[in-house]
Amino acid sequence: MNALTIERFFQRAAAEVDADPRWPDAHEALLCALESGAVRSASRRDDGTWHAHEWVKAAILAGFRKTQVAPIDGFFDKTAYPPRALRLDDGVRVVPGGTSIRRGAYVARSVVVMPPAFVNVGAHVGEGTMVDSHALVGSCAQIGRRVHLSAGAQIGGVLEPVNARPVVIEDGAFVGALAGVFEGVIVREHAVLAAGVVLTGSTPILDLVHGKEFTREIPAGAVVVCGSRPAQGAFAKERGIQLAAACIVKYRDARTDAALALEQALRG
Predict the structure, then answer these.
(1) How far apart are CA 42 and CA 187, in angstroms?
(2) Phi/psi at 255 (5° precision)
(3) At residue 27, what are phi and psi to the nearest 5 degrees?
(4) CB neighbourhood size of 123 (10 A)
(5) Which of 21, 60, 148, 167 matches a 20 to 30 Å C-alpha distance to 124?
(6) Are 173 and 155 within 8 A, CB to CB?
(7) What is the mean pLDDT of residues 111-128?
(8) What is the DSSP string of 124-190?
(9) Distance CA 101, CA 143 (A)
(10) Distance of alpha carbon 112 from its chain centroid, rounded?
(11) Is residue 122 within 8 Å of residue 41, measured between CB atoms?
């Protein structure tokens, strides 16, 4: 099946898809297309907005519905999404020690994955990206080229609802240790998230450079640190209660780039 044929198969009602005897072949074709990059769960439009491909998410969910839990290499999981068996000529470096890249995940050439890490179904990891130890790339998350996901970084997945926009980390961004990005937040090109920054769909993002407040998107080149804002109400004010916020303290410059310079020998 080509990409268009796969799309037509899975765009039908769930009951019709589930009853179709061709489903096993269509499911395998979907996984292969996702792994090759011929199909993606989301894509960026010319105006910079990201669009979730609902039929891809629906197709992935069908795999969970249609299969049972069974032993897989000493573990127990749905048989639709076992770990990928990468080959040397895939050009992906996966250091031994507990990493799992699920079937249906795209991992480009020259990606480095340090153990243990997990890349879920529908995720897309671009060329030259580093996925460090204990990092998560959630289902259908979109990770660009030359991104650095530091140790313990958590990039959330979004399968349901199928029309929800994905979590996106664009090209050249840096996600610090133990940082988390969830609920459809987009981190634009070359942005920097300091260690421990957590972004959800409702996290206030305070741009201290331009005097703005917004949510759900980090601008290109922004440098973001953990911050806070006063909680509202007399009770909170009496006690000096603060609530979490993300603060943009600067935009990338030569000093930032020097501080984030990575030893390229480690990427080979």
Answers:
(1) 15
(2) -65, -40
(3) -65, -45
(4) 28
(5) 21
(6) no
(7) 98
(8) EE-TT-EE-TT-EE-TT-EE-TT-EE-TT-EE----SSTTSPPPEE-TT-EE-TT-EE-TT-EE-TT
(9) 14
(10) 15
(11) yes
Q: Exposed, middle or buried by CB within 10 Å (0-12, 13-18, 19+), for 122?
A: buried
Of the candidates 213, 206, 136, the one whose C-alpha atom is nearest the C-alpha of residue 167 is: 136
Task: At 244, list the tokens.
Answer: 């979490």
Structural domain boundaries in the chain? 77-257
The percentage of the chain sitting over the pLDDT mark of 70, rounded to a whole number, equals 97
Strand 75-78 relative to strand 212-214, pairing: unpaired
- Compute, in degrees rounded to 10, the torsion defined by CA atoms 81, 83, 88, 92: 90
At residue 268, does pLDDT exceed 60?
Answer: no
Neighbours of 185 (CB within 10 A): 26
pTM for this entry: 0.94
- Distance of CA 236 to CAs 83, 227, 230, 241, 245, Å? 48, 17, 8, 5, 16
Rounded Cα distance, 152 and 120, in Å: 15
| Of 67, 8, 63, 53, nearest in space to 31 by CA | 63
Tokens of 130: 């580093």
Q: Confidence class of residue 210 from pLDDT cuts 50, 70 and 90?
A: very high
Q: At the top level of CATH, which class does the domain 77-257 belong to?
A: mainly beta
